[in-house]
Amino acid sequence: QVFLTESGGGLVQAGGSLRLSCSGSLRAFDRYGLGWFRQAPGKEREFVASINWAGGDTEYIDSVKGRFIISRDDAEKTLYLQMDSLKPEDTAVYYCAAKMFSTAQAMGRVGVDGVDYWGAGTLVNVSS
After folding, report:
1. Separation between Cα atoms, residue 31 and residue 15, nearest integer Å
2. In a 3-state reduction of DSSP, which class is residue 42?
3. Cα dihedral value 43, 90, 122, 39, nearest 10
4. Is 128 exposed, middle or buried (0-12, 13-18, 19+ CB in 10 A)?
5. Number of helices (H), then strands (E), in the chain
6. pLDDT at residue 92, as a whole number
7. Do 61 and 47 meet the contact criterion of CB atoms below 8 Å apart?
8. Which of 18, 69, 71, 79 is the most buried (most CB within 10 A)?
9. Cα–Cα distance measured from residue 107 to residue 116, given in angstroms and rounded to the nearest whole number
10. What is d(CA 91, CA 88) in angstroms, rounded to the nearest whole number?
11. Would the pLDDT of 1 be above 80?
């Protein structure tokens, strides 16, 4: 069953911006820590950013700090990732993820093994 659906991916030139969205159908959306992961061809899926189930605290992988902003709107059951100053190395399939009662720090620490639900992914292509 699909509980998370990403959108907003596409082709963009280096230095450009994209805003990814993840629409959730989870019954208690606000009880889930949420995050974004990405996977480039031939590489492992990696943590990108996360946000607390409560409080709004966030966590980012070092390579995207200052360029990406994760946010959530629980009333709309939507997770966002604003991506600015995109680089070719950001090219990947981006997945949203949910973990019940997870903090941002915990989701970043445990990585893919700690995820309860995954979206199917949205492709981001950054050209040089």
Report:
1. 35
2. coil
3. 10
4. exposed
5. 1, 11
6. 98
7. yes
8. 79
9. 11
10. 6
11. no
How confident is the model over 111-127, as pLDDT tens digits?
Answer: 899 899 999 999 999 99
58 bridge partner residues: 51
Q: Residue 68 in 3-state DSSP?
A: strand
Please give the full DSSP string across 72-100, using - where no structure is assigned.
EETTTTEEEEEE-S--GGG-EEEEEEEEE
Number of other CB atoms surrounding residue 23 within 10 Å: 17
DSSP code at position 14: T
Dist. CA 67–CA 12, nearest whole Å: 15
Q: Both ends of the chain: CA-CA distance in Å?
A: 37
> Which residues lie below 8 Å from residue 51, measured CB to CB, with a gap of 6+?
33, 34, 35, 57, 58, 59, 70, 71, 72, 79, 104
- Spatial strand order of the sheet with 68-73 comes to 4-7, 18-24, 78-83, 68-73
